[in-house]
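Weekly modeling sync, notes
Attendees: S.R. (lead), two postdocs, one rotation student

Agenda item 3: backlog of single-chain predictions. S.R. asked that every request posted to the team notebook include the full sequence so nobody has to chase files. The rotation student volunteered to paste the first one in as an example of the format we agreed on. Action items at the bottom.

Example entry:
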Amino acid sequence: MFVSFLLLAAPAAALDTLYVVRHAEKAEPWPADLDAFRPLAPAGEHRAEALAKRLKDAGVAAVYTSRTTRTMETGMPLVNAAHVPLVADDASTHPQEMTAFLNGLREKHAHDHAVLIVGHANTIPDLLNHLGATPSCYARLGIAKVGSGLEIQGYQGVWKVDLKKQGCAAITRE
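Predicted structure, as returned to the notebook:
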């Protein structure tokens, strides 16, 4: 007797959430020509620890940073607490590379719940724009026009991006 079964593919899993934060407070003063190596100030170390406590059980599968000391130091407490990898990738800081960077995250982490991206005051607005932010929600998200570009002010805030939604509705600032 021959029995055949029709196997239905399970729906494709997808990355649910991106968390985006600015690196914590950086040491001042610091030589301009060594900016990439600028560490966190004591207040920044405390903020990084608080971030780790906040996101430890949020299902973060990896922490992505630029190749600066301050972004890596901001992500390390979560890396250590949640036992996840830290990936230093400057693509998160170059607007022309962000689409490929974000698509790569979605592909690499298709079966994960969340990923954290630690950015900079002048790169977070571009990341959020690539994720659906528009000028209509800039004020709510803390994005301000500074000179010819966009920036976020201060070190506070965690932007949570729900990848199942689109546009401004997908992004909240906690």
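Discussion: group reviewed the output briefly. DSSP finds five helices and eight strands in the chain.
Action items: rotation student to repeat for the remaining queue; S.R. to check formatting next week.
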